[in-house]
Design goal:
Elements lengths: L2 E8 L30 E5 L11 E6 L3 E3 L2 H4 L1 E3 L6 E6 L2 E6 L8 E5 L4 E3 L10 E5 L7 E9 L10 E6 L13 E4 L5 E7 L2 E8 L15 E3 L4 E3 L8 E3 L9 E6 L5 E5 L5 E6 L7 E4 L4 E4 L8 E8 L5 E8 L13 E5 L5 E2 L2 E8 L3 E4 L5 E3 L5 E3 L5 E3 L5 E7 L16 H9 L5 E6 L4 E3 L8 E7 L6 E8 L5 E7 L5 E6 L3 E7 L2 E9 L21 E3 L4 E3 L25
Parallel strand pairs: 1-37, 11-18, 27-36
Antiparallel strand pairs: 2-3, 3-7, 4-9, 5-8, 6-7, 8-10, 11-14, 12-13, 12-15, 15-16, 15-17, 19-20, 20-23, 21-24, 22-23, 24-25, 26-28, 28-33, 29-35, 30-31, 30-34, 32-33, 34-36, 37-40, 38-39, 38-41, 41-42, 41-43
Length: 574
C-alpha cells in the first residue's frame, strides 16, 4: 500500500524569530491535605524600588516559616558582585549580610528564584525579586527574549544569559558578566532594572557554573550586534550551538617514527592548503578527527619549506611557514582501510544513491572497472568515470548511481488487485538486496598498498513499503537547504537544495521533521558564524509538527495527507 504525505510550506524569509516571554509558572504539590499555599513576602528592608539605600543588609519577612534551598545557586544578583555574604534564618525572617558596602549610585536586583521555600512542603516563594538603588535614581529598563537550540529550535532550558558592557575590555571567554540570568523551561529570560547603555548579549550552557564560556564543551549563542539599550527590549532572541571558538594554533609539527611529517592543531580544523616553496605537489590528508595533518614521504635530501593555511568551522584562519623533513621509518605503517562507508550497511537504498567511501590515506589509483553493484548471481551494474567524484585530498570517494535492479515478474491479477498495484509490481526490483563489491587491489594508496576486499550489503527500498513526503516552498530566498530529519535525534535522512517543489521518496516508517537552512553564502552547509566577530550563524527553521510515515501492515497506514502552512515573520518584514 502506498503511503503519501503531502506538506505545503510557506516560508517568509526571517533573520529572527519571535519568542514569547513571561514569568515561570510555579507548580504546587497536589493530593491530600498538603499545604499548597506558598509563602508570601510581607515586608523587606529595603523595600523593592527604594533609592539611596546604603546598608549592606537584606532582610525579608514572610507569611510563614521558611528555609533556604540551594540559595547560593538560585540567587542571582545583578550587577554581579563578588562580595561574600552570610545568611541567617529565624522562622519567617531571612537576612543576608554583606561583608562590604554596595557600589555607589548603582541599581541592584536580587532574583531569589526558588531559593526560599516554606518549611513544611517546600513551596517556593513566588516571583521573589527585589530592586533598589544606592543612588538617587532606580534604573528601570528591561531585556527579554528567548533562547533556543539552533539546529532543533528546542527551548534552551537553564541557559545562562550574560550581558557585558560593550565599552569594557572584558570578554565572555575569560571574564564574568556584568549582568546575568537563567532561562526558564520554555527558554524565556528576563533581566530587569538595567541602565541605558551599549551591551553585548550572550547565552551559553554554563556546565561548570563559572560564568565564563568554554566553547570546546559548552553550547553558546550571541546577539549579532552591539545592543544599544535606550528603551526596554522584549525580543532579543538567541540561538545556541556547539562550535569550538578557540583561536587556531599549531601545537606540534615534527617527523614521526613511521616516516611521516605531521602537523598537530589545538582543535579540529575544517580545511587547509599546503603550498610547497618549490611549487611541487605533495600528498597529505587530515587524520584524528581533523586535528592533525599527515604529510607523506617525498623524495627529499634535506628539509623543504612550505606555507600552511588552515581554517576552522568559524572561518578563523591560521597561516604559518613550516619546514618539512622526513626521518627513516622505524615503525610499521598503517594498512589502507576505509574509515567510513555511507550509506551504512543494511540501509534501504532509494533509486538514486551516492556511495561515499572515506580512506585513512590518499588514493593514488582506482581500477573502476572492477567495482560493481551486484543484485543477484547474474545481474550487476558497473561504474563509469562520470559516476566518480574525489575530494581535494583524494581520501574521499563518491560513486553516484541510479539503481537498475531486475524487474519483478507481475503476479496474475486477482479480484482485489487494482491497476496501480499491478503497475508497481512490474516496476519494482525483484531482488530486495544489493551489494557494493570492491575487489582487493582495486584501490591503491600513495604508499602503494591496496585495499582489501570490501563487500557492503544493502536493501532496496520499495514504494509499496515506504512513503512519500512532498510539498512546495514559497520564498524570495535564492539559497536554502531543505532537510528531512528524524524527529527523535535530527539525523539528516535526505536534503535538497533550493527546491521550490520538493519530493522525498522511499521514506521508511518513522517520525520525521522538516528543517530549512538559509544558506546565505551558498556553500551547501550550515555555518555557525563567528562569536569573536559577532557574525550571526545562518538561520535555521524547523517545521513544528512531526510527520509520521506508517509501516506497511500498520492499521494506521494508508493514503494520508498532511497539509500545513507555516509562516515566519521578523522585524525586517514590518
Amino acid at each position: 500500500m502506498r503511503i503519501y504525505v503531502s506538506l505545503s510550506f510557506l516560508l517568509i524569509i526571517a533573520a529572527l524569530w519571535y519568542g514569547t516571554t513571561g514569568c515561570a509558572n510555579v507548580g504546587s504539590p497536589t493530593g491530600g491535605s498538603k499545604d499548597t499555599i506558598p509563602p508570601q513576602l510581607l515586608t523587606s528592608l529595603p523595600l523593592s524600588g527604594s533609592v539611596n539605600y546604603k546598608q549592606g543588609i537584606i532582610r525579608m519577612e514572610f507569611s510563614e516559616a521558611v528555609v533556604l534551598k540551594n540559595l547560593q545557586s538560585q540567587l542571582i544578583i545583578s550587577p554581579r558582585t563578588s562580595v561574600p555574604y552570610k545568611t541567617r534564618v529565624n522562622r519567617n525572617v531571612v537576612e543576608l549580610r554583606f561583608d562590604k558596602p554596595f557600589a555607589d549610585s548603582t541599581t541592584y536586583t536580587f532574583n531569589f528564584r526558588d531559593g526560599i521555600v516554606d518549611i513544611t512542603e517546600g513551596n517556593p516563594v513566588p516571583n521573589l525579586y527585589l530592586a533598589f538603588s544606592t543612588g538617587s535614581y532606580l534604573d528601570s529598563l528591561r531585556l527579554q527574549g528567548n533562547v533556543q537550540r539552533a539546529l532543533t529550535n528546542a527551548a534552551a532550558d537553564g541557559a545562562t544569559v550574560a550581558i557585558y558592557d560593550a565599552r569594557d575590555t572584558l570578554n565572555i571567554f575569560s571574564d564574568k558578566p556584568l549582568y546575568f540570568t537563567k532561562t526558564d523551561k520554555e527558554g524565556n529570560y528576563e533581566i530587569r532594572n538595567l541602565k541605558r547603555g551599549r551591551y553585548l548579549v550572550y547565552a551559553f550552557n554554563d556546565k561548570n557554573n563559572n560564568l565564563t564560556l568554554q566553547s570546546k564543551d559548552e553550547a553558546y549563542g550571541f546577539w549579532p550586534d552591539t545592543l544599544q539599550l535606550q528603551a526596554s527590549q522584549d525580543s532579543i532572541n538567541i540561538s545556541t550551538f556547539r562550535a569550538n571558538a578557540d583561536v587556531p594554533a599549531i601545537t606540534n609539527a615534527r617527523p614521526t617514527t613511521a616516516g611521516y611529517y605531521e602537523v598537530t592543531f589545538n582543535k579540529s580544523m575544517q580545511n587547509y592548503r599546503l603550498q610547497l616553496n618549490t611549487g611541487d605537489s605533495i600528498a597529505s590528508n587530515f587524520i584524528e578527527e581533523q586535528k592533525k595533518i599527515r604529510i607523506y614521504p617525498f623524495a627529499l635530501q634535506d628539509s623543504l619549506g612550505a606555507t600552511l593555511l588552515a581554517w576552522d568551522s568559524l572561518q578563523q584562519q591560521l597561516e604559518q611557514q613550516i619546514m618539512i623533513r622526513f626521518e627513516p621509518g622505524r615503525r610499521k605503517r598503517e594498512a589502507l582501510v576505509t574509515t567510513s562507508v555511507l550509506p551504512k550497511a543494511n540501509t534501504a537504498l532509494s533509486r538514486t544513491v551516492t556511495f561515499e567511501l572515506t580512506f585513512n590515506k590518499p588514493i593514488a589509483s582506482l581500477r573502476l572497472d572492477s567495482i560493481r553493484l551486484v543484485y543477484d548471481s547474474i545481474t550487476f551494474q558497473g561504474f563509469a568515470p562520470a559516476d566518480v567524484r574525489w575530494n581535494e585530498r583524494r581520501d574521499k570517494l563518491r560513486l553516484q548511481k541510479t539503481l537498475q535492479p531486475p524487474r519483478r515478474a507481475v503476479q496474475p491479477p486477482s479480484a482485489t488487485a487494482d491497476a496501480q498495484t499491478l503497475a508497481r509490481q512490474g516496476s519494482e526490483g525483484a531482488g530486495q538486496n544489493a551489494r557494493l563489491l570492491i575487489p582487493k587491489g582495486s584501490i591503491q594508496s600513495v604508499e602503494s598498498d591496496t585495499l582489501d576486499n570490501q563487500e557492503v550489503s544493502y536493501k532496496i527500498a520499495q514504494e509499496s513499503q515506504t512513503g512519500i513526503i512532498s510539498g512546495t516552498i514559497q520564498s524570495a530566498e535564492t539559497n536554502f537547504i531543505l532537510q528531512l530529519v528524524r524527529a527523535n535525534n535530527f539525523e539528516v535522512v535526505a536534503e535538497q537544495y533550493n527546491a521550490r517543489s520538493y519530493t522525498f521518496r522511499f521514506v521508511e516508517a518513522g517520525e520525521y521533521r522538516l528543517r530549512i537552512i538559509r544558506d546565505l553564502n551558498n556553500n551547501g552547509r550550515w555555518d555557525a558564524g563567528n562569536i569573536r566577530k559577532l557574525q550571526a550563524p545562518e538561520p535555521v527553521y524547523v517545521y513544528p509538527d512531526p510527520i509520521s510515515i506508517k509501516a506497511q501492515g500498520d492499521p494506521a497506514s494508508g493514503n494520508s495527507a498532511v497539509k500545513a502552512v507555516y509562516k515566519w515573520r521578523s522585524a525586517v518584514d514590518k
